[in-house]
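Continuing the series of single-chain predictions for the mutant panel. This is the parent chain; the variants come on the following pages.
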Amino acid sequence: MASSFRAFLNSPVGPKTSHFWGPVANWGFVAAGLVDMNKPPEMISGNLTGVMCVYSVLFMRFAWMVQPRNYLLLSCHASNEVVQLCQLSRWAKGNGYLSEKKDKASSK
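Parent structure:
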């Protein structure tokens, strides 16, 4: 058990590297997005949410291409992408860019 922990500790993606602490810090974006789900759509910034979507997609690609592959960073940014896309859809619905299907049916 101690030897496997020592191997993880000294690995190229272990806690002694930025490959570990960078993704750990980035989970804060996911947590903030989840907390913001309780706020009204009027408080969501469409520009910032769109930028966060692009940022997460770019860093998902980076996490996949960097050697050694950084699966922790990939999972962090994939989770952030999902959260930000949900926020973006809430913002779009709140500003009338997306309408519900029942609204289309009632207008006909």
